[in-house]
Amino acid sequence: MSENTPAGTAAPVDIELQLRWSDEDALGHVNNARIVTLMEEARLRWTQPRGKSGRFPHGTVVASLKLDYLRPLYYQPTMVIQLSVVRIGTKSFSLRHVGIQDGVPVFDGVSVMVPLAEDKTSSRAINDLERAWLESAFVAADA
What we know:
143 residues; alpha+beta; globular; 17% helix
């Protein structure tokens, strides 16, 4: 896969999410599986804005997901997920999700996303419009 990794000067995009009572486990933490759902919600809000943007018209799918739980995420009204693009390939891109609560990172995950073709089953190359949009959110990955 060819890679395009422009010099990143953009900042992560902050997505504020409301936590739900049902996210909480018996210890008062947000359940680990719910964290994956929160990552999905933030990612969808960012990649699928209301209206016709012209990007990813047939959606994207998760090809890979890596998630590190850094400390418990406690049930509170809201939390923030910082999203940044850390890799752009020919037919996929990697999106970093850092969960922040009270100014402290609580999880750090990367999902590899693949755009779907018109048949909503096959993968396809990232088009020029999508590439430009992804590049505008590119942040160099930590070494």
